[in-house]
Amino acid sequence: EFRRVLFRSWTEGAPEALSAMGCDVARGGDDKTVLALRHGNWYAPLKKHAGSSTPDGAAVADLVMRELGEATAFVDVIGIGSSVYDTLHTRGVSVTGVNFAEHSSATDRAHKLKFRNKRAEYYWRMREMLDPANGENIALPPDREFRADLCSPHWSITTGGIQIESKEDIKG
């Protein structure tokens, strides 16, 4: 049921101005630098760039600045992402650093469950936004790789709160 509703309301064309951008940074290799552009509750198709085309922080910052306009960029600051964050910040761009390993003090919508870290919090927030009962009407693009990335991690409840399966375990 949950997987069926992920892409049900998406249509071509942003209904409003860009409100935020997420940036997952890759530097060389097989990984991709990915830009996720959000227009209110509508998400554009992911912009994926080969790691070889993003060899350093300045190159990724240039990609972000071409798309961003007046919105805020949320950049993964672990590893090479810190260079992207620093470059954007120095250039006067509205940017927020995101460290997914950082502790979270947030709770779920019902204020009953805690999260082990920001990664668990953000995955859970997306899960809650996609629940049709919450009325957010999030519209995600029809992208098989994106769907797999959202649906593949397992979660568990630990003494420290909700924990999302590690990237290494998912790829395993």
Layout of secondary structure:
Blueprint: H1 2-5, E1 20-24, E2 32-39, E3 42-43, E4 47-50, H2 57-68, E5 72-76, H3 81-90, E6 95-98, H4 118-130, H5 144-151, E7 155-158, E8 161-164, H6 167-171
Summarize this structure as a short list of keywords or feature phrases:
172 residues, alpha/beta, 8 strands, disordered N terminus, two-stranded antiparallel ribbon, globular
Can you summarize this structure?
The strands form two sheets. Strands 1, 2, 3, 4, 5 and 6 form a six-stranded mixed beta sheet that branches. The chain is an alpha/beta fold and 172 residues long.
Polypeptide structure, described:
The protein is of the alpha/beta class and 172 residues long. 30% of the residues lie in helices and 21% in strands. It contains 6 helices and 8 strands, in the order αββββαβαβααββα. The strands form 2 sheets. Strands 1, 2, 3, 4, 5 and 6 form a 6-stranded mixed sheet that branches. It has a two-stranded antiparallel ribbon with strand order 7-8. Helix 2 packs across helix 3 (81-90). It is globular. It starts with a helix and ends with a helix.
